[in-house]
Amino acid sequence: MVEANVATVGNRRRTRLVDRQFQLGLAVRLLMVLTILFAAGLLLAFAPSYYVLATTNDLKSLEPAAAEFLVLHKRLLPAALLSLAGIFIYAIFFSHRIAGPLYRINAILRALIEDRDPPVVKFRDDDYFQPTAALLKELSEKLHASRRITAPRAGGNPPPGDAK
Predict the structure, then answer these.
(1) Does the pLDDT at position 2 exceed 50?
(2) Whole-number pLDDT of residue 125
(3) Is residue 124 one of the residues assigned to a domain?
């Protein structure tokens, strides 16, 4: 049996990391992406002026490049927008690995609440909450088996061996 990687529910207020592997993994990934996008934004902002300063020797060409360093706020806005767009796209892409399983979990729980046989528990290989999927599959099979045992037989007759 596979168990979910979650903390005990005893004192919820003190539990900051409910699922340590998931939460720390998400934070590290987001931090890495933000760092890469921030570095790319800085590169886009400073590269043209830096190139001129590094490759030019005459003072008349250096003066505008140096002045350009003072007005980089004009370039930082597009770089920041590019970074924000990248973060948004990444968040949408990455959240599918979370939102998809939660949607499936909710569908299964809804079916169980309504006394219906739940749909087959299927998560993509790269989805999160794989242990939860295993637990839900086990629960669904157990409930399905108990329904088969307690279901009334056709004609209202008790199963053989239960006759008194």
Answers:
(1) no
(2) 84
(3) yes
Q: Structural domain of residue 43, as residue ranges?
A: 19-151
Residue 144 lies in a domain: yes
Output helix, strand, coil percentages for the chain, rounded to the nearest 5. 70, 0, 30
Does residue 59 fall inside a structural domain? yes
The amino acid occupying position 18 is: V
Number of separate domains in the chain: 1
In one-letter notation, the amino acid at residue 98 is: I
The residue among 13, 35, 135 whose CA lies nearest residue 87 is: 35
> How many other C-beta atoms can be found within 10 angstroms of the C-beta atom of residue 33?
16
Helix axes 73-113, 130-150, angle to 10 degrees: 20
pLDDT digits (tens, 9 = 90+) for 91-100: 777 777 787 7
The whole-angstrom separation of Cα 20 and Cα 22 is 6
